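Supplementary notes for students who missed Thursday's class. We covered one full example, reproduced here. Read the sequence, then the structure, then the short commentary at the end.
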Amino acid sequence: MIGLHPALPPCDTAVVVVPGIAGTARAVRPLTAALAPVPVSVAVRRPSPAGRGGSLPIPRRAEELAARLTAGPLPARLIVAGHSLGAYIALELVRLLALSAPETACTLVVAAQLPPHRLPLHADDGFDDATVLRKVTGGTAPDGLAGDPALLGVLIDQWRTDYRAIDAYKPEPAALTDAPVHVWTATGDPSAPYGEGIADWGRYTTGPVHREEFDGSHDFLFTRVAPVADRLRQLTARPIEVCP
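Structure (token representation):
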């Protein structure tokens, strides 16, 4: 299951952050602190039987987030920022909110991810434990898990299902939203280089598309907190863009 923490308070503007594979609420805390007093809610994975939260298709994950958001007060403006895998969940979430909460003006930020039709299949690299661990961490066990192979195995299984969910997510490269889209890449991220492939995000919206490159690596959204928070804060303050 996918949840949101904390729930959004009544407010005019807020940010929802959807982390990617291995992303945690803890990793987002510095960004959340830097954005204060702007309310921020983070998509988090909840424990569920047989790892159900990890095996859910991407559109279904977005449906769970949309249900949680619309169960409470929604702001007039919502910035939805998705990182890596989270970019696809964020795209689906913005599409759903346009249907269920049209009074909320959404802006979509996709960070460190190619458009779905441009992304090579992860299955081409294989899904064995060593390959999955290399993709996520570079091949080393996360801090504190080197001596806990059972827990590390659970995490690798979770990450493997995430990669399979990405491979299975193949929407048509057509407009799924009319929201403005901000496409953010990093100078040191070979998985989503700034170029023609990134520009193809424009095929998924009828709204305006803005591209920007940050210093850093794949996880720049959470490791280059100051410039990222500055840009997100600017998005919360700028006039709402309307699709012509």
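Commentary. The longest strand covers residues 77-83. The chain has one domain: 2-118+172-237. If anything here is unclear, bring it to office hours.
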